[in-house]
Amino acid sequence: MKRFGSAAWNGSLREGKGSVSTESHALENHPYTFFSRYGEKPGTNPEELLGAAHAACFTMSFVRLLGMANFVPEQVDSESEVVIDKDGDGFSITSVHLAVTAKIPGIDQATFQSIAAKAKAGCPVSKLVKVEIGFGATLLS
After folding, report:
1. What is the CATH code for 46-140?
2. Are the C-beta atoms of 23 and 5 separated by less than 8 Å?
3. What is the arithmetic mean of pLDDT over 33-49?
4. Fewest beta carbons less than 10 Å away: which of 7, 26, 99, 101?
C-alpha cells in the first residue's frame, strides 16, 4: 500500500507561499507559508500535519487492539503535539507527545494503560518518529 501527499511553493521563503495536497483530496491546495509554520498566521504546517497523522494512526491502532481484547470504546480522543526548535542553521523536531483520553465500558486501568502503550509502540507513525515520544493515557469513567 502506498499513499502520497504533495506540496508546491512559489516565491522566496518569507514572502512566498505554498500549498499541500493529499491523494484523497482531504487537503487540496491547502495554504501554508513561512508564517503559518513559524508564526501565528492562518494556514497549516508540516508539524501539525504530522501531529494529525500521528494521532489518527495511534487511534486506529488503539481501537484495533481494544477490539482484539473484546472492548468497544464509546469515545477516543487523541492528540499528538509536535515541537520544532531552532537547531544550528535550521530547525529540528525535538519532541513529540501523544495523549489519549477514552471512555471504554468494562475496561480497568491496568488493561487500558497496557493496550494504550502497545498501540503507541505499534503505530507506524510512532515507528517513523525517531525522537522519544512522550505519552499520557486517561481513562474516563
Report:
1. 3.30.300.20
2. yes
3. 90
4. 26
